[in-house]
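Hey,

The postdoc asked me to send both predictions to you directly instead of through the lab channel. I've kept everything plain text so nothing gets mangled by the mail client. Protein one:
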Amino acid sequence: MTIYVDIVLLENLCMNYIILFSTAYILKLKIKHLRIFLSSLLGAVYAILAYANIIPMYTSVITKIILSICMIYIAYYPKHIKGLLKELIVFYLVSFALGGCAFALLYIVRPQDIFMVDGVYIGTYPLKIALLGGITGFIITYVAFKVVKSRVTKNEIIYKVIVKFDEKELETNVMLDTGNMLKDPISGEAVVLIEKQKLYEIMPKNLLDNIEKVLGGEFKEEQEVKYRTRLRIIPFTSVGKQNGMMLGIKVDEVKIITDVDEIINQNVIVCVYDKTFSKSGRYFGLIGLDILERSEKKNESFENAKG
């Protein structure tokens, strides 16, 4: 059977691109198409070397792992080891799913043209089967991750945040609450809830201890006047309480440190929570998906503007 190098290169380039794109989409990473293309090209060149058996060591497991790490770095440039491992695991899971779907379709459509060379399956299958298998595998993997993610307990989704306010910084842990849809009704800015005891570190105690008076317009202390332009009234609804009001304060910046990235948002309102969120003390605030998505979109727009 004649194997054309350009066809093998194109097939692997497309499959690698789908796998890397799917990994980034599932993990909500910044998608930079040029970096993903270069990473896909590296994987495709490796496939050519493996098919041709030019350098035998390229077929070793260790070399394949090293190649995968290189592809991850080129495509996403993770800033932390933990992020690299997470991206690598998802990359392999997506690869197995996409490869399995493509091979299954190939076996059903043209099984007579499949054979193995040096542990690698090759054949004269059309490119559209590989692409169709890749797309099918992506859909299956994405749905599976959505189902698994929906079953993850809230206690496992803890982020570290750094809140900057009036030249002071507060570092604390917050929990991702997918049901938290709070936002400033006027500006539409995202809202973070943080316990009052923690906010004492960066905000005036006299202001935080007189929330009811501030909400009622009765508090006229110096601190209230100084921060008047930062104060917000955030309406909320919870179980057992309709049409509630919370005091919100516009902060200078909120940095969210995730497993794979550091997300910075300068359009955030911090609401003062007068009770405790966690009896065990694992977290002291709540954030919603909205602040993560807005931060990612803002960072992408900034990068595009720089480019």
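Protein two:
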Amino acid sequence: MFGLTRYQWLVLFAAWLGWGFDVFDGLLFNYVAPICVPDLLGYAPGDPAAKADTMMWTAALSSLLLLGWALGGVIFGKLTDKLGRTRTMLITMLTYAIGTAACAFAPNLWVLAGFRFIASLGIGGEWAAGASLVAETMPKDKRILGGALLYTSAPIGLLLATFVNDLFTRQLDSIAADPSLSWRVVFITGLVPAGVALLIRMKIKEPESWAPSENTRLAELFTPQLRRRTLGGLAMAVIALVTWWSCSAFIPVIASFLAADTAPDPAMLATRKVEFITLGTTTFALGGLLGTALTVPLALRLGRRPMFAIYFVGSAMAIWAAFGSAVEAETRLYLLFGVGVTVFGVFGAFSFYLPELFPMRLRGTGAGFCYNAGRVLTAVFPFAVGMVVKSGVNPVWVMQWVAIPPLVGLGLLAVGVAVETRGQPIE
């Protein structure tokens, strides 16, 4: 099928599961934050005073996750080139699975933040290992297909997180009735990737062409031969990351705000919140699934640079439509589909574009650096958004200004920042 062997499909599926669970574990806190944060701070369910603190802690822990993600990406990116792709995938998946499950036992938000940081190290490291493994296992003419298929697991992971949150915070009455229990059960499900990691270790071997790189240094990414590639890849990643995290991290919180404004009965508020969170995150994820798939024909027919330009223009338009237009609450949540197609969908390109930029001995290091180092800069934005909203500004009004970063990305493309890799051989 698609000209791939059974083993190539197995490698792709293993990396697909690794990245899907990566996103699943990474977003669980944002889903349970409207319940988790008030519970750990001692607020009564439905207390209006919890809104500002929930927004602030969601922003702070999202920024902390990004910092840990960046650190883990750089550290494990180097290990990917030194220890191997499959060994690093195993270590990173076990790290984020155990760190996420440990959050279920946190007695306060500070301990929860510590466990989230541990999980974020593994979350950041898994991507470079999986993307490098797929790039080196796929046939040359299937790299784009393999990379895009790899990233389709991200919206699936988001949908899985939506389902788990909805199941334990709304559908299963025996658990949902106790807010202090429901969010902890959601975190426990983060252990699932540990079993998948062991399966990967038994079935997947290193690419035949891979050899350990003993002395890879980050400084090599900035030699004259690679500097433009590194800076271009980093720039595209930063624009996409700033936009994605400034949107997606707050979808559950914004959905809760909209639910509070429309709930006909205070007694129904908790149920309405979960319904709105499920609707908003589901439409965003489904849009992301479509957008990820579209990177394949766009990259093949037009090239990488025009593809990024299309997604950045679409991101600005979709964000403004979803948050800048005067529409009903539920309509606003449905408009998140367009945000998913563009803001989420563009990430389907990074799993084939970034590995194309670097030679094999630096592939994990380079791709990991570009994709994850940008999160250090990105970490500022969710925190800034959270602090602005905490000051009393309407969060929907704030979100419309997230349309600006994609326009900055369009300007960077216009001045030739990103390298075009269409038709170029990969080492």
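Summary for protein two, as requested: The chain has a mean pLDDT of 84.

Thanks,
C.
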